[in-house]
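STRUCTURE:
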């Protein structure tokens, strides 16, 4: 799980860059889904990779506009039927 906190006044620049260059994900880092907070200042992105070092490559493309927190998730717990 990637928690992105947008820099002040960064949201417009983030979307401009995204529309020009896309997510700029390195091969092997897969975007699954994302959610924005109601105020639009934070984004939670679910991503998948076998190589945690790929996050560093990706975040370097955005760290002038976004503060990142990367949280490694484990297996989804099974629910009792």
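SEQUENCE:
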């Amino acid at each position: 799980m990637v928690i992105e906190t947008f820099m002040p006044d960064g949201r417009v620049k983030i979307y401009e860059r995204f529309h020009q260059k896309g997510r700029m994900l390195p091969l092997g880092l897969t975007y699954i889904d994302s959610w924005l907070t109601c105020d639009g200042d934070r984004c939670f992105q679910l991503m998948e990779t076998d190589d945690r070092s790929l996050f560093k490559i990706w975040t370097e493309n955005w760290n002038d506009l976004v503060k990142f927190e990367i949280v490694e998730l484990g297996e989804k717990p099974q629910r009792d039927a």
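REMARK: The mean pLDDT is 93.
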